[in-house]
Specification:
Layout (H helix, E strand, L loop, with lengths): L1 E10 L7 E10 L2 E6 L10 E4 L3 E5 L1 E6 L15 H10 L6 H17 L2 E8 L6 H13 L2 E8 L14 H14 L1 H4 L4 E7 L8 H14 L3 E5 L3 H11 L4 H7 L7 E5 L5 H10 L2 E4 L1 H7 L6 H7 L3 E3 L12 H16 L7 H8 L1 H6 L17 E5 L12 H7 L6 E6 L2 E5 L2 E2 L4 H20 L1
Parallel strand pairs: 1-4, 1-5, 6-7, 7-8, 8-9, 10-11, 11-12, 12-13
Antiparallel strand pairs: 1-2, 2-3, 5-14, 14-15, 15-16, 16-17
Helix pairs in contact: 2-3, 2-16, 12-13, 13-15
């Protein structure tokens, strides 16, 4: 299929952060073929989209969430962190494949409607491959570019025995998942990762070493919760006599450029230098960190050190929303408040974290994350002129970070296929999915309370 988007304000997120106003983007067979500041005449285009008055930009990357939690929004938010985490882990005793399928559909729907084209589900409640299989099916049903991090837990202080595995058991399940989806991974729409869930709390040092060796051998990337809260540091100090999670993992040779470190709130200056040296990427989840009272990650220092920082919502049990525009704004403003430097994270830098940095953190930056010829057509189009929370528009880049909302996204395209247009997700009975998700959530909470 060939398609031409005309006369839009095009935010490319290329190496020069070019903003074309107006701009033209040509797409053929799912790939971007031309991006131009001058009119393109594509006479054989099967469809032309008028982008006049609209902003066209790369799709947003949500680098860290837990989709099953869409069914338990707000259920445990009154609890202190360790007790909250215990309840989340214990969901694994009753969570079903159908729960994972429906929650993944619901989360992917919310993601699409907020401009997310690439979605990372960090799955840590596993019993073999049944639950991750269902999560993959749910994400794929909505058409988002799907990343499933099938992680492993082998420590049981907070987690129930049903979700614990030896490193060998967990890695065998990851291999089975890879075998089942080997063909699908070839098209770039599905990526499978591995990882130790939370080193020091639910994952041992031996597991962290084993997953790194496994990932290195198979060329996989890893996802792990790193230094999310002060309680994690206390656990590492108590168990291993080390003052930092990153310091401890460095001693174990468990860090590397394939690691996506979610949160990374409680890291020292020296640990940031270690992360930069090892090529570790970070998924910054500012709304979740505020929601749980975890603290504010030193993102400015990470960026200055050369760490690739992406953005994520985290799960709906520690955020209640999967809105990446909310995350985008908070990522900028929190660092300003923390450092008392009003321009410390410029709007363009925040947008890079939400797009090309997210793609880079996942090893997908050669395919997505910016609007450039040769890349796959993962893009979104917004209208900043029809809602009072945006008007008057003077600086498009600043508006996208500080004014825009999920409801401003009108069109979402993944791999050249339009998934949402006019706020309607094509081919989906949305009211039916919402009814099914509400019913599934009520059944799940009933089982949890039972």
């Amino acid at each position: 299929m060939s398609l031409l988007i005309e006369n839009a304000t095009v935010l490319t997120m290329n190496a020069g952060d070019e903003l074309l106003d107006p701009g033209w983007v040509e797409i053929r067979d799912g790939a971007i073929t031309q991006v131009s500041a001058t009119p393109l005449e594509s006479r054989d285009a099967e469809r032309r989209i008028d982008g006049r008055g609209k902003v066209l930009m790369p799709g947003i990357v949500n680098a860290h969430t837990h989709l099953f939690q869409t069914l338990i929004r707000g259920v445990y938010e009154h609890l202190p962190f360790n007790e909250w985490l215990r309840r989340i882990y214990w969901c694994g005793r009753v969570l079903s494949a159908q729960d994972c399928f429906i929650s993944a559909q619901l989360g992917a729907l919310e993601a699409l409607k907020s401009g997310v084209t690439t979605l990372v589900d960090h799955q840590f409640l596993n019993r073999g491959v049944e639950l991750p299989e269902a999560t993959i099916a749910g994400m794929r049903a909505l058409g988002v570019r799907s990343v499933l991090a099938r992680t492993i837990m082998d420590l049981g202080e907070l987690a129930p025995p049903e979700v614990l595995e030896t490193p060998e058991e967990g890695l065998r399940s990851v291999e089975a998942l890879l075998d089942r989806h080997r063909a699908e991974q070839g098209d770039g729409l599905l990526t499978i990762m591995v990882g130790p869930n939370t080193p020091g709390v639910s994952a041992s040092g031996e597991l962290a070493q084993a997953t790194k060796r496994f990932a290195d051998r198979l060329g996989l990337r890893q996802s792990a919760h790193i230094a999310e809260s002060a309680s994690v540091l206390e656990a590492v100090q108590r168990r291993y006599g080390r003052n930092g999670v990153v310091t401890w993992l460095e001693e174990l040779d468990a860090l590397g450029p394939n690691l996506l470190a979610a949160h990374s709130v409680h890291v020292s200056s020296e640990e940031i230098r270690i992360m930069a040296r090892r090529g570790v990427s970070v998924s910054h989840n500012p709304v979740s960190n505020m929601h749980l009272g975890d603290g504010i990650a030193p993102i400015v220092e990470m960026l200055e050190a050369g760490v690739t920082v992406a953005l994520g919502t985290d799960g709906a049990a520690s955020n209640n929303s999967q809105d990446m525009f909310e995350v985008l704004k908070m990522a900028s403003l929190l660092q300003r408040a923390r450092t008392q430097r009003p321009h410390v994270v410029p709007p363009m830098q925040a947008l890079r974290m939400a797009t090309i940095n997210g793609a880079k953190a996942l090893g997908l930056d050669r395919s997505v994350g910016s609007l450039e010829p040769g890349k796959r057509a993962d893009l979104i189009m917004l209208d900043l002129y029809k809602a009072p929370h945006n008007v008057a528009v003077h600086n498009v880049v600043s508006h996208l970070v500080h004014c825009a909302r999920a409801s401003d996204v009108e069109l979402v395209m993944v791999d050249g296929k339009i998934l949402m247009e006019g706020r309607e997700v094509l081919g989906l009975d949305e009211p039916r999915l919402l009814r099914e998700a509400q019913a599934a959530a009520e059944r799940l909470v009933h089982r949890l309370n039972g």
